[in-house]
Amino acid sequence: MLTPTPRGQVCCVQVQGALAYRVGYPPTSWEWTPWEYATDGRFNGRRDDPEGVWRTLYLGATRLACYLEVLAYARKSDELSAALDEIIENEEEEEEFPTIAPGRVPRSWMTPRVNGSGTISGWFVAPGDIETMATLRNCFRADAIRLGLADLDTAAIRDGRPRALTQSISRWTNTLTDPAGNPVAGIAFDSRHGDGLVLWALYERPGDGPISGNVTPLDHGPVEADDPDLIEAMRLHNLVWEDS
What we know:
Elements: E1 2-5, E2 8-24, E3 56-60, H1 63-70, H2 78-85, H3 91-96, E4 104-105, E5 114-125, H4 130-146, H5 154-159, H6 163-173, E6 186-190, E7 198-203, E8 215-222, H7 228-236, E9 240-241
Parallel strand pairs: 4-9, 5-6
Antiparallel strand pairs: 1-2, 2-5, 3-7, 5-8, 6-7
């Protein structure tokens, strides 16, 4: 459904009881990340509030989509590998501050994390929709160019670099309302790791408790190495366990 705004039209999609997943932290992974983990009062996710007023919860329509997002940091990078090769360490430093080669993940990565499943409901802005994209380009193209991009397109908003751009867009989106005049629940978008990998960025709203009012948790459990979705995400990212 198209929703008019003072700066153009945006496409909003209604989600009603959709199954959603999250890889997070105890107790259930559905809680808002505590503010004490913010840096200078702000979180630095692609859709987080640049002013640090409200929080964002990142969810996936599949557990695979979640794993691909949270493990992307460990992927091999030719530039990073070359930079690491140029660092000269003595034996004492290496023992005290061991480094892990790109493409390898310590098994301890699983220990503090929790898999959660639940359902979500609400209206979500679709930034990749053709109408929304036209509105965003009109509103934020100058910002994109100022930040070093050639233009504002779907590649720019999916990649999330620079963060200042996607966070500014998210802050504007946070002010929009659904067809009934209520604040939108958040943003629905495709993962940068592949088409069809649906993700949601859920906005914290006044009156929310530890868990968003748009979420109904179902179950949760530990992240385990034999999880087929985790195995597949590591294959797609070409990752192996550090002790393999």
